Input
Amino acid sequence: MGRAFVYVIVGGGVSAGYAAHEFVKRGVSIGELCIISEEPVAPYERPALSKGYLLPEAPARLPSFHCCVGSNEERLTPKWYKEHGIELILGTRVKSADVRRKTLLTATGETISYKYLIVATGARPLKLEEFGVNGSDAANVCYLRDLSDADRLVDVMQSCSGGDAVVIGGGYIGMECAASLVINKLNATMVFPEAHCMGRLFTTKIASYYEEFYKSKGVKFIKGTVLTSFDFNSDGKVTAVNLKDGSKLSADMVVIGIGIRPNTSLFEGQLTMEKGGIKVNGKMQSSNTSVYAIGDVASFPVKIIGETRRLEHVDSARKSARHAVAAIMEPEKTGEFDYLPFFYSRVFTLSWQFYGDNAGEVVHFGDFSGNTFGAYWINKGYLVGSFLEGGTKEQYEAIARATRLKPMIEDLGELERQGVGFALSV
Ligand code: FAD
Output
C-alpha cells in the first residue's frame, strides 16, 4: 500500500504549519502536499501550551491557536488544509525513512513517497531516566511538549490545587510552568543546578530581577542542586522530591523541564548531523538534496553570527519553514537564509525579547527596579545581542534593527547611559 506526493512534511508542529502556509502562498497544487504527524491535531502554536493553555480562567483551547495566529495571519484549521488540497495524515508516526528510495514508512504500514521531503520533527523532552532518576511514569509527574502533555498537566494541577508543586529545571519550560502553577494556586518551588534561572541566556543581574519577581508571587528557588530520587506512595504517586544537597521537598506534583533532544533518529546514518541536529545549508537543504530540515531539528548557518546553530525557538521554526519552501519552489529567486535569532517569553505581567547572540561583554541599561530594562552584548567591539523587558513595540523593533546592523560600539559607558535610546537612534 502506498501513496506518492511531490512534497511531504514529516512532523506536524509549528514549522510544518508555517511551511504549509508558504506552500499555499506560492501556489502549491491540490494533492501535491502531504503532512504526516504523530499528533492527532493539525499544526498549532506550541508556545501557547505553557501560557494561555494553563490559565485557570478562559484558557486557550484549539482551534483558537492553530498556526499561523502567532504571526497574525490566518488560522490554519483542518478545514483550511482540506480546502487547499493538502493531505493531513494525523495521529500517525513515521517509523522509518529511506532517503535513497525517497520513501517513508508509517506506523500504520503505509509507504509514502516524495520528490521533496521536509523534516519538521521538532524535539522531545529529555527524561529523568536519562540522568539516572526513575519516576517519569508516575501519575503526578508532568513534562510539557505537546497537547496531550498539556492536558495532563492541567488535570494534575486541578487535582492538587492548594498543594505543593516542584519544578525541576530553570529554563523556559520551568519558568513558564512555575508561573502557571502559582496562578493556579499551587505552592511552587523551582530546583535547578545553575546559579540562576535561564542560565543559557540571562546574566546574573537579569536573572535576579525575574527571580525576585517570582519570589514576590510566592515561587521559591533552590539553586545549585539536583533531583536525585522521588519518594512514592502505595499508588505509585510521587510524595516527595529528594535533592542532592540532602534536602527533601514534599510534592503533590512535579513538573520536569530539563531540556530537549531533537528528533533526528529517522535520519541517523542517512543525513549529515551537526550540533545534535540535521545539518542544512542556507537553503535549509540537508546533505541529501531532496531533503530539507526546519525548526528545532535543523542546524543551519546563522549568517549574522557566522556559525552553525540549532535554535529551539518558535520564530526560527516559522521563518526557517518559509525559507525552505521558498528554496524548494523558487530556487532561482531564493538566496541564503539570513536569520536574526529572536527569543521571547511572557510570564505573569512580564514580557521580554532577545535578538542576536549573547556573546561578549554585557552592558545593562534601564531601571532594574522598575518595569523597563535591558542589556546589550558587545563582542569584539560590535553590538551583537540585545535584550529588553517591558518594551513598547517601537522599542522592540528598534533593538531588533540595531542588532541586525551590528554597529561598532566605542564607548560602553555612553551606551549604558543611552540605553534603549541608542537602538532608537541607530
Ligand atoms: P514541533 O512544533 O515540536 O513539531 C514537531 C512535530 O513533529 C510534532 O507534531 C511531533 O509529534 C511530530 N513528529 C516528531 N517525530 C515524528 C515522527 N517520527 N512521525 C510523525 N510525526 C513526528 N519558543 C519561543 O521562542 N518562545 C516561547 O515562548 C516558547 N514557548 C514554548 C512553550 C512550550 C510548552 C514548548 C514545548 C515550546 C515553546 N517554544 C517557545 C519553542 C517552540 O515551540 C519550538 O521551537 C517550535 O515548536 C519548534 O517547531 P518544530 O516544528 O520544529 O517542532
User: Anything to note?
Assistant: Residues 10-16, 36-39, 46-47, 49-50, 93-94, 120-122, 144-145, 172-173, 263, 266, 295-297, 312-315, 317, 343-345 surround flavin-adenine dinucleotide (CB under 6 Å). The chain has a mean pLDDT of 97. The first strand starts at residue 2 and ends at 10.
